[in-house]
Design brief:
Layout lengths: L1 H17 L3 H20 L2 E4 L2 E4 H16 L3 H4 L1 H9 L13 H12 L2 H14 L2 H26 L2 E2 L5 E2 L2 H11 L3 H38 L8 H16 L2 H30 L4 H14 L6 H17 L5 H6 L7 H8 L1 H24 L9 H12 L4 H31 L3 H20 L3 H13 L1 H28 L8
Antiparallel strand pairs: 1-2, 3-4
Helix pairs in contact: 1-20, 2-21, 3-8, 3-22, 5-16, 6-12, 6-17, 6-19, 7-14, 7-17, 7-18, 8-13, 8-14, 8-16, 8-17, 8-22, 9-10, 9-22, 10-19, 10-20, 10-21, 11-19, 11-20, 12-17, 12-19, 13-14, 13-17, 17-18, 19-20
Length: about 500
């Protein structure tokens, strides 16, 4: 196995340097395809002077519907979600592979990434401070979408002969539509979703992450790693392989340690920076609310701020994409709706907490010194906001970005694996081949800039939300029945509590 990995990596190392124009050639060939796919998936309509991608509207409308249909489960279910994650209702003999906390940590590690650091900075730059308000609103609504897709992920998962489980949108699409007499359509959209999540796992869940990790390290090193992308890529690929070769249990054991550490690490320093800008806090918060409804200086005014905020939230927490449902499907529970409750915490942590804190770091810095970032945008802008108060912070921030990228890769490796096994079967040899391919792409991501391929991958990940949200509409009544039944049994004590 290791020999095969070394052979594959050596092959790529041989062909890439030998063909200096390799990435340029690939980019030229794939650019027209990327342009076409992107124009279709991210087709925009003009709303009061602002450009609204239809795919974002599709996701947001779904989130509003599920919030109303389930009676604001994102509020009423929050306390119970905490109880489940603590293990209060965890039966160790339940079917599944990972605990509620491990499933949550794996799903959160798949969404918390570079976007939480750099994407928020871009959103605030384009949409103004008011975008933060709409980002929070979208995160709140997205909690309900996660509830639906993660409940269905467990309900329609498949138990494999070796004791492992496979679940996610491709399974609830196929089985759910089959129950409604739409067998052919269910098979088609399930297969389409599996292909999309597989390609997405190699692109935005892999090459983009490893590339950004290398860029961050090289920036902090002052360019000392120029030309050494192959070395960073090899090291990163080897570490990723060491984790993912053990499957979801190995991934969950790593994410349950990394996610709390990196979240606390990042939020702690962010709060310190915000407090050091204490004099600017009232004005920064006021700017968020006034900007949300006036959108001063923003293209499209308040609508422009709303669209940017919603778009950033959707891109960040992936509510409606269905990816997190794959990780949550592996949980040990006989009650599908319990994982719906747990998944409520995911957009809350990713968007409402981490993205908002990043926005406040930038917002308070802007109030104190409007020119603090110069021409910098994205991660560099966030880094400048930290550096303004803590001069040495870009170094640990780069370390944090590396952890974010690493955790995202190992989670997305599992999403891609489940897309692969859905298409090609659960045989161990096939799974090993997939893992080797995944790690080879980790190394490639550090060596070449395949922008158009990443664009295609990005577009496909958002394209699969179309059948996913459609399936959620069809299957929402089942989720509602599960929720009401569970609540009734919880009230009567039929659902046993193991910790008090």
């Amino acid at each position: 196995m290791i020999r095969l990995f070394v052979t594959l990596t050596t092959f790529f190392l041989y062909i890439l340097p030998a063909n200096a124009g390799f990435d340029e050639t690939i980019n030229e060939l794939t650019a027209p395809v990327a342009s076409f796919v992107g124009s279709v998936v991210f087709f925009k309509i003009s709303v009061l002077g602002a450009q609204l991608p239809l795919v974002v509207l599709w996701l947001v409308v779904g989130a509003v519907f599920f919030t109303l249909y389930l009676g604001f489960v994102n509020i009423s279910g929050f306390k119970h979600a905490i109880q489940l994650v603590r293990g209060d209702y965890a039966d160790p003999d339940s079917p599944g592979e990972v605990s509620h906390f491990q499933a949550l940590a794996t799903a959160v590690s798949g969404t918390v990434g570079i976007g939480n650091i750099g994407g928020v900075a871009v959103a605030v730059t384009i949409g103004g401070a008011g975008a933060t308000f709409w980002l929070i609103v979208a995160g709140f609504l997205g909690m309900s979408t996660k509830f639906v897709e993660c409940t269905l992920g467990v309900k329609y998962r498949t138990d494999n002969p070796d004791g492992s489980v496979s679940g996610g949108p491709m399974y609830y699409m196929r089985k759910g539509f089959e129950e409604r007499g739409m067998t052919g359509f269910g098979k088609f959209v399930g297969t389409f979703y599996a292909i999309g999540i597989f390609i997405g796992a190699l692109g935005i869940g892999n090459m983009f992450q490893s590339n950004q990790a290398y860029v961050q390290l090289n920036t902090v090193a002052g360019g000392a790693l120029d030309g050494l992308g192959w070395l960073i890529g090899l090291i990163l690929a080897a570490v990723v392989f060491a984790v993912i070769v053990g499957g979801i249990k190995s991934i969950a054991r790593v994410t349950e340690k990394i996610v709390p550490f990196m979240a606390i690490f990042y939020c702690l320093f962010a709060i310190i920076v915000i407090l050091m800008n204490y004099a600017s806090i009232p004005e920064a918060i006021a700017n968020i609310f006034t900007g949300a409804f006036t959108g001063e200086g923003v293209t499209g005014g308040a609508i422009g701020a709303l669209i940017i905020g919603f778009q950033r939230a959707v891109f960040s927490n992936e509510a409606g994409i269905g990816s997190a449902s794959i990780a949550h499907s592996a949980v040990r529970t006989p009650e599908p709706v319990t994982e719906g409750y747990v998944s409520l915490l995911e957009p809350f942590i990713d968007t409402i907490v981490i993205c908002t804190i990043t926005a406040l770091v930038i917002g308070t810095s802007q109030v104190a010194d409007p020119s603090f970032a110069g021409e910098a945008t994205g991660v560099a802008m966030t880094s400048a906001a930290f550096e303004r108060q803590i001069s040495w912070f870009p170094l640990p921030l780069a370390f944090g970005a590396l952890l974010f990228a690493f955790s995202t890769m190992i989670s997305w490796s599992y999403y891609g694996l489940k897309g692969w096994t859905y298409l090609f079967g659960e045989a161990q040899m096939g799974q090993t081949i997939y893992k080797l391919i995944f790690c080879a792409f980790v190394a490639i991501g550090c060596m070449v800039q395949l922008g158009p391929i990443l664009d295609i991958s990005d577009a496909l990940v958002f394209l699969i939300c179309v059948p996913n949200i459609l399936a959620l509409y069809f299957l929402a009544p089942i989720v509602r029945r599960e929720m009401l039944s569970y609540r009734a049994r919880l009230k009567t004590g039929e659902i046993k509590r193991y910790k008090h």
